[in-house]
Design brief:
The structure holds three protein chains of three kinds.
Chain A: H1 2-12, H2 20-24, H3 35-38, H4 42-45, H5 50-54, H6 81-89, H7 92-96, H8 106-112, H9 114-120, H10 129-133, H11 150-161, H12 164-167, H13 176-181, H14 184-190, H15 200-204, H16 217-222, H17 226-233, H18 236-243, H19 249-253, H20 283-314, H21 320-339, H22 345-402
Chain B: H1 2-15, H2 17-20, H3 22-26, E1 28-31, H4 39-59, H5 69-78, H6 83-110, H7 119-141, H8 146-159, H9 166-174, H10 181-213, H11 219-227, E2 233-236, H12 237-262, H13 285-296, E3 300-301, E4 304-305, H14 306-322, H15 332-359
Antiparallel strand pairs in B: 1-2, 3-4
Helix pairs in contact in B: 4-6, 4-12, 5-6, 6-7, 6-12, 7-10, 8-9, 13-14, 13-15
Chain C: H1 3-40, E1 52-57, E2 65-71, E3 74-80, E4 86-90, E5 101-103, E6 108-111, E7 116-118, E8 124-126, E9 135-141, E10 144-148
Antiparallel strand pairs in C: 1-10, 2-3, 3-4, 4-9, 5-6, 6-7, 7-8, 9-10
Amino acid sequence: MTLAVCALAYGSRAQTANTCLDCHGVLDPPLRVTEAQFSQDIHFQKGLTCASCHGGDPTKADMDAMSKAAGFRGKIERNQVPALCGRCHSDGNFMRQYNPGLRTDQFSQYQTSVHGKLFAKGDTKVAVCIDCHGVHDLRPARDSRSNVHPLNIAQTCARCHSDAAYMKPYGIPTDQFANYSKSVHHEAMTARGDLSAPTCTTCHGNHGAAPPGVDSVKNVCANCHVFQAQMYEKSSHKTVFQSAGLPGCVVCHSNHGITHPTDAKLGTGPEGVCMQCHSPGDDCDRARVGLLASLTKLDQSIKSADSVLGVAESSGMEVSEARLQQDQARDSLTKARVTIHSFQPKLIDQDIQAGLKIAAKDLQAGKAALSERDFRRKGLGIAVIFILITLVGLFLYIRQLEGKPANG
Amino acid sequence: MKIVKQVREWIDERFGWAKLTEPLRHKTVPIHKLSYWYFLGGITLFLFGIQVCTGILLLMYYRPSANEAFESVQYIMTRVQFGWLIRSIHSWAANLMIFTAFLHMFSVLFLRAYRKPRELTWVSGMILLFLVLGFGFSGYLLPWNTLAFFATKVGTEITGQVPLIGHTMMVLLRGGEEVTGATLSRFFGIHVAVLPGLTAFLILIHLALVQRFGMSLPPSVQAASKVNPSVVREMKFLPNFLLREFMAWYIALGVLGALAALLPWELGTKADPFGAAPAGIRPEWYFMFMFQTLKLIPSKILHIDGELLGIGAFGLAGAIWVLLPFLGGQREKRGGRLIRGAGVFALCYIVAMTIYGYLAK
Amino acid sequence: MSNEDSQQVRPARRRLVEILLGGGVFASVVSFLYPVLKYLVPPAVPDLGQDDVVAAAVGDLKPNGSKVFRFGSRPALLLLTAEGEYHAVSAVCTHLGCTVQYRSDLHEIWCACHNGTYDLDGRNVSGPPPRPLENFQVNIRGKEIVVSRKRGV
């Protein structure tokens, strides 16, 4: 049947230089590779053919193309893939002909990764190049349809790492993607379209993928969260966590399911983190209570200023300047929440006081607007009194004119 | 008061002021139990004067372009000293004026002051009523907020439904196929130039006719005075009646100030032509009865498009209303009852439909 | 009341009425005219502030200095380099909206919330900001520094 189809194809397209697709385009999977598919492949677009990886002679028609003499290798086995890709991609001189900007250390990085190390021991279940990058319709990473585009990376990793049955021999959790999907980083990427938000490879690396290691976690987070890391470095918690072998930031914030931190983290509810280690009533607990109180105080004073300004606005008063200042107050609250990572109440208090001052001023502005509104109403009252006097005057004048009780 | 006399003499020596105002000084107003209704026309005129003054003041700061209209009104409300007062008075007086205009029309109808020889006074008054509604419709768009934008869209859409000329009318009104900044420019020009000019002209005619024919006596009072002449007494217009009118105007001024300070007119949000229409979009109250009627009409009545029928009905009603004095018929009594019946029906219909329109949301 | 009495009462009464009427009319007219006259006086901020704003006067800023001013409803940053060039950008950080500031020691624009940095034209250089700050046109008009939104392409 296959031969018959190939023979039919031979008659119509004997001229193409990539004759492989003539047959393989109409075969059933897993042998099926269509022209539509392969035309999307970056290798094809750069002028490579099937023979570049699989060997053989792409100019010959029919089964002659798959000649062992011409170097035909047939299907590339999984354990041969990295070496095959690396044959070109690790060769700087070769790659320069195509894209001088591409790195050529992927294979050596791969060898340092967990995948690479297990692969070297003969495990072919681990990821090899084609598992992430695709094959036959391989797109560059900057193409949003590529499996390794930042928006798609998490799903690509999850193909194995969320498959409990597949991952059973390795004894690691498979809830990373589920947790990550709930995280604020995932939201930044999908909802806000921020491509610089972290995905799996940001913290784990791509080719050299491995967990950062307990001591290095905070270094990884510190790449973006510079201030928090700087404060944490100088804080009491750093030495304690380090000597206890605890992974820094992850202790309070978790690794994959990093949700938006709220003041509740300082509380005693389900989201509270402090009491996981500290005992109720000790110095730290007292400090925690104080911190939570001052953060709440600032938050509420901002909100109350907002509500007074809102009332003033809906009465028709101009309060846009104060509204703008409220942003500064909110900035102070943000800064205070960052300074928490120093675990020094005095430092945190500085930001809180700055914010309280601004919020108090804005509250004043709101109250001033309301009193201006009341002033207007008083002015109206005065005008109405003048009008009433005039009305009485008119009334009496009319009576006077007409010399007797007037009509109407 | 001495100064007033001196100034009057100075003017009289040059312009014959005394001779000009002679008829006015002889003018009398019949006073009877229904004469309070005579104030309505004057109040409407006074409110128009307020609109002209506040309108001119608003013109000092308003910018009629889609980019800046909303911001300029916001500027007036928040930055300009007493801008909030001027703008709120303008918005409130507009609504009050439409209300008193309608009331004036109905009172004239029920007091039967449209009869011979006052037919043209009625016609000019009806045209003035339409102009006032035009003022309301065109002015409403000028702040360029969401409610106004979509209300205008719906309103001009309905105009487009009129057979044959509807589409052309709509395009002329909108300055294009859609409501855009071009619509705003047009409405602005109509609101501050075209309509004021026409209205001023018609007011002069209307007032001249009122002067010419004097105040009409309602038929019931006329009948009563034949029996007992003391039911009616004549009051001089100058200064007695006019002073009373001033009292009414001053009360109106106080009411306007109170409304502006206690219930300031809201700004709304800036119109976004590409945004979705807010739920429950509806016109201002003076168009509500028509709007509600159109909503209630079934989509097809005997193969004719329901909306078309509604528009046609209102058009016909409007035409009949303008020509009311001429439709009295030969026998006055019967004509009177017919028109009175129509008036009662119209008044009840308008009030009921307006209330219904607001409750139905 | 006899006729004679009413004749005597009338002048005083007349005076009272005159005062009431005249005074009332005068006072109420003043209470109408006062707002109208105040209305006509141009406000301190003469323009709508949407597209063109006078950010400062020449000489307000020292070289390597900056000022946060209001542009429309959002803050904007005007800075003067040591070489005498004015730059104006939106002061709303494109990361999470904090107000940025000019760092005279680093000669760059910096956001204190999460350490985002921008160059003097607002281009995001490092840290979390995903997009540059909106860049504005600066013109000197006499003694005024006018900042306006860039028009055209």
